[in-house]
Model the fold of this input.
Amino acid sequence: SNKGLKDYYQSYFPVGAAVTPRTVEEGPEAELLRKQFNSLTAENVMKPQPIHPTEGTYNWEPADKIVAFAQANGMKMRGHTLCWHNQTPDWFFKDKDGKEVSKEVLLQRLKEHITTVVGRYKGKIYAWDVVNEAVPDAPGNIYRESNWYKIIGEEYIARAFEYAHAADPNALLFYNDYNTESTSKRDRIYTLLKGLLDKGVPVHGVGLQGHWSLTDPTAEALEESITKFASLGLQVHITELDMSVYPKEHARRERRDTDVSTFTPEQEQQQIDQYQRIFGVLRKHKDKITSVTFWNLSDRSSWLDNFPVRGRKDYPLLFDQNYQPKKAYWKVVEF
Ligand code: XIL
Done:
């Protein structure tokens, strides 16, 4: 068939993939991208560390290459990410003597970073993950104890959205997080977002990362998240969809002898069923879901091959190691 995911889902939402600059070089991956997807996210190269490694130095080339590919192929481009606790260089938080900077200095650095990055891609990136993973997993606190929070306080979140909005008033601005179907984390993210909206902060959407497993989330839990966030008037993007064939673990750890890589017929069937269920839910809520992006392209290479267990292979996507559609793919496009 000549149809791709983007065609089957044309009247639902754009379907995207996270890519590296190498993915978009001519070859089977670029070909698969063009056939199947109409939206892209940079897997790493727009994050603070790669794009702004030292104060005053920006490394645009890798990001530009992905943006150029999206433009040349008529694809949408999402930006990921402006403010996060990971993949952010230490220089943001330290002065020349290695001492922690003041709140004023850090806000100034955040502003300069966001203004420059969003400004460069103004009109080319239609949606930004402005703040990523600011809410912790453990019940209790709304705010993760990141350097951003410790030095600036909760205000860093509102400021980040304001800086991004000033740099590109037409860009849609998202709060992005994982584990958004856990009741406790869902409620704390909701409280955070409601507080921002009540203060008039320019937040337009919530990104559900969608690092899911064969059993999580249930259809009910996913629906509850989608409807709860949409009730705030926010768009919902699924930003980083993949489905590990292993039980969910969030903490990174070393490989053990018992960690064997498996994709048994049972795991395969569970994955087919879970993909079918999840896309049923996404289609049902097409008035709220305005983008669905997979985190990587095929089972040939996924970030889950090393996370949370170093060196364990995973099989989380809709295309196999030879870029062929898996059985789950055909369930996702049959409706
Ligand atoms: C991951 C990338 O896929 C890896 O290549 C990198 O080593 C670590 O980050 N949540 C996010 C993404 O918001 O940026 C992360 O991407 C996956 C989890």
